[in-house]
Design brief:
The chain has 11 helices and 2 strands. It is mostly helical. The protein is globular, with a radius of gyration of 19 Å. It starts with a helix and ends in an 11-residue tail after the last helix.
Length: 289
């Protein structure tokens, strides 16, 4: 219970919150996005190769960031189209995108590390404002924007309604496919943003930048109370879930619990959260659609 540890918890939660906001929009549809780690890896390598680096003489500045975000949006578009037009379940479509994006990142990696030499870019991950990293303020902005999007825009309200009763919306003339694709595009863009910011933290482009983040992201969303069947939950729930998971992890680290045992404890907590959230809706359980 110290100010320093509170700051550490907030800093640790920032990247996870960005990913979880995007995942929340997709899960509210009743779908799921498994491409998080692949998109993070791809965006990391794209930004590293297009900004001042140790591999080439290219330096697009802020343009490198936009290019990386564009790759994430494209991955999300592929996921959305595969789900809505090719009728591939989101589980399989996003799993394929995960490995495709990871393959692209591996090709871009080329077997040698890519060190990022842009001081202004690296400051995003290594700077400090009142003891908090700049990423924290970006994450808060993303969370507030996501909350306002779901609450005050037609698109946000429709996304929530899709998870509750998609057939009824279709019969009402709502372009359901369009909103589903939009949710995946936003999710892909936020995954790319997380990959870019993680690269700034380590000052390096890496294919391993998102390793382990998928399970943690979905866990945080579910722990917050956004149910996997869709239609129930939101960004406020996700913020609570992210903080809960981060505090639990922080406490286990301070208590000296080994990483393997940490995963076991997290797994038990997550299973409990899923059962609690889904038990009232067990009669209509549909994990992915």
């Amino acid at each position: 219970m110290t100010v320093a540890n509170a700051r550490a918890i907030v800093n640790d939660a920032a990247l996870l919150l960005i990913l979880a906001v995007g995942q929340t929009l997709v899960i509210l549809l009743g779908s799921i996005d498994l491409s998080v780690e692949g998109v993070m890896a791809m965006s990391s390598m794209v930004v590293a190769l297009l900004i001042s680096n140790s591999r080439n003489h290219i330096d697009l500045g802020i343009g490198a960031v936009f290019a990386a975000l564009g790759t994430g949006a494209l991955a999300g578009l592929v996921n959305g189209v595969a789900l809505t037009w090719a009728h591939i379940p989101s589980f399989m479509a996003t799993l394929g995108t995960w490995y495709a994006a990871l393959g692209v990142a591996t090709v871009l990696f080329g077997g040698t590390s890519v060190i990022i030499r842009s001081h202004s870019f690296n400051a995003l991950g290594g700077g400090s404002i009142g003891g908090l990293e700049p990423i924290v303020f970006i994450a808060v902005g993303v969370a507030v924007a996501g909350w306002a999007f779901l609450r005050y825009t037609r698109a946000g309200r429709v996304m929530r309604a899709i998870g509750s009763n998609e057939p009824l919306l279709g019969l009402s003339g709502v372009p359901v496919k369009r909103y589903k694709v939009l949710a995946f595009v936003i999710g892909g863009t936020l995954s790319a943003l997380a990959g870019v910011l993680a690269s700034a933290q380590v000052e390096n482009g890496s294919v391993n930048i998102g390793t382990g983040m998928l399970f943690t992201t979905i866990s945080a969303v579910v722990m917050g109370g956004t149910v996997l069947t869709g239609g129930k939950g939101g960004i406020g729930n996700t913020v609570v879930g992210v903080l809960l998971l981060t505090v639990v992890t922080n406490g286990m680290v301070l208590a000296g619990i080994t990483p393997n045992l940490q995963q076991a404890v997290e797994g038990v907590i997550i299973v409990g959260a899923v059962v609690t959230a889904l038990w009232p809706q067990r009669s209509r359980l549909q994990i992915a659609k």
